[in-house]
Each structure stands twice: as structure tokens, then as C-alpha cells.
Amino acid sequence: MRNDQFLSELETKNVFLFNDNVENKYYSWESPNIIISDGAYGVSGFKGDTHSYDKLVEWYEPHIQEWSKKSNAGTTLWFWNTEIGFATVHPILEKYGWEYVSCNIWNKGIQHIAGNCNIKTLKSFPIVTEICVQYVKKALLKIEGQKVSLKDWIRQEWNKAGLTLNQANLACGVANAASRKYLTKDHLWYAPPAEHFENLVSYANQYGDEEHRPYFSIDGKNSLSKNEYEKLFHVFKGKYGITNVWEVPPLHSNERIKVNNSPKYFHLNQKPLYLMSLIISVSSNEGDVIWEPFGGIFSASLAGHQIRRKVYGAEVDSNIFQTGLSRFSLLYYPNQKAFF
Length: 340
Prior knowledge:
By secondary structure, the protein is an alpha/beta fold. It folds into two domains: 3-139 and 233-332, 3-Layer(aba) Sandwich (Rossmann fold); 143-230. Helices cover 35% and strands 16% of the residues. It has twelve helices and ten strands. It has an eight-stranded mixed sheet, with helices on both faces. A two-stranded antiparallel ribbon has the order 6-7. It starts with a helix and ends in an 8-residue tail after the last helix.
């Protein structure tokens, strides 16, 4: 079977893979629920990687611009990199509206260096970790042509209704919590749960100044519904016992891809499907759209497909693309090792 035939077959299964520069594809991809970025690290790790971390901003900014255009409020970004790589790119992510959530550490353990480390030359402790930083696209509402944060909008609407802070507590049926948390100006603010937001909307429209009704409206015609409000937030279904330190050894199983069945591995630090499945499953629902813009051997795309997500991935290097595509072919045609 030819590549194009198999790629067409995969599209019927909601898998869209491209051997192309992803900058040529962003425009045609559906808006993502999750983006999994495993691109340049600034370590000359692959053809096209930068030679040092100080070039990463230039490398990533065009991609971050495109992610920001296509992403909605609540889209989750999982950004794989080194510690210094993440720190370098972080201000650019913030610039385009991505909010830092947490830094997760993949600890590969002593197996990663296998004793082959010259400490006298390095003059530092051996590095056995990578990080995967969780970001979320901020909810910025377009009100009368101006972008307004959710925090400011909720407070503005309540004030416009001419209601007191204490009345917010009455509306939500809580003692001081609404006024101290949902309407505060300081860093203790957090968004009201959907049920309480619905209560605030109902109370404002019933008791607020009649002149400015409806309150909490984006279009000036209808108040934001509970379901519409919930869509402004990212999905996260945490699992008990799993922290932000992932104690997962490097791959040494049949999952690790070798070069033509030789002892040499195709990828120096192949990501386990387990980790990719973990971050996808906790931050999305079945049928959601996953982007893997720097596909490599498509670990995120394969993991997403296996747990019934719709995936889009791109890889510019033809040899690497072919290897990644073969992982899908083995999934459906396990007896045809030389598939293409």
C-alpha cells in the first residue's frame, strides 16, 4: 500500500498526518482542544533544532502566533523542553495570552545515563529529566471591540447593575465567599463555579438596574449561559497518586524504535506513549482535537488516536515522517513489517 492510500485510510479514522512544514498546515486544521509541543530544545538534537537556547524565541514565536489565532479560551498547551528552554520561551507564551499552570518533570532516573557520564568534564550533576509545562489559553472576552479579562468583566457587570458586594453573597448562597473571591480585585480572585455564575447572572437580571439588562452578555442581546461559560475553561481530570513528578524510566521495551532492527535507537529520547496518553486523557474528552505540530515519530498523535481523539500532526523530515507513519501501519497491519 502506498503512503497516500494509507494516509487516506487514516483520515477516515480521524487521523490527519502531513509530511510538510507545519506552518503550511495550521490554517486548515480545526481549532485544537490540546496542543502538544515537542519541538526545538536548543541542543542541536535534530536537523532544524537551534544550537543554543537563546535562539528559541525566534524559532517558536511564529508557531505561537498561529497557535494563538486558532485556539479558543481553555485550550491546553503541553510544552516539552529543557528547564532553560522553557524559561526562555515563557515570556513569549505569556505575550500571546497563554497562562502558566504548572511545570511537570519527567524523571527518567539513573537508567538514562547508565553510568556513561564524565562529571569532571561537565562539572554539574548528570541531567536525567525533561519538563512538560502546562499552559492554558486565557479567557479574553471581546466587549464593544475591547478585550477584557474574565475577572474584570464579572466585576464590571456586577458594578454596572448597581449591586453591592454583599448581594453577590446572597445570590450565590454563600457567606462572604462571592464578594471575597469572585468579585475581588486582588490576586485571591478566582472564577466562580458555573452554578454560582448562573446565580449571579439571574440575580443581576432580576434586581439590577433595568437600563443595562441583560447583564453578563457578550452580544448585548443574551446573557452568557452556563454551558457557554463552562467552555471558557480548560478540561482537567486529575488522577489521584499522580503528581507533577513523573517517575517513568526511559523506554527499553519493544515500544522503543530501532534503526533497521539494529541495536541503534532511532530517537535518543523517545517519549513513552504512557506519558502522552496521560496528559491527553486528563486534559481532553473523547472526540476532542489534538495538535502535534512537531510530530517526529508521532507519539502524541498515536496516543491520542488510541484513546479516541481527533489528531492533526506534521513532520517536515521525510525519513522521520515515514517512521512515525509506520507506527500507525503496525497498529492496523501488525504482520506487515515492511508496509510501504
